[in-house]
Amino acid sequence: MQNYRFHESDRAPTPYRIELEVNGQIQHFSGVISGKGETGPNSDIQIAEFVYDPSERPGESRQSASENPLYANYQDDVIIRQWAGIISPEHILRIEDPKSIIDVMLGALALVGGQRSLDGYLHDMRERGQQDLRQDQALSTLGQLASSLSMARSQVSGRIPLVPQPGSTTSRSRRF
Question: Can you give the residue range of the structural domain that contains 117?
Answer without folding.
Answer: 86-152
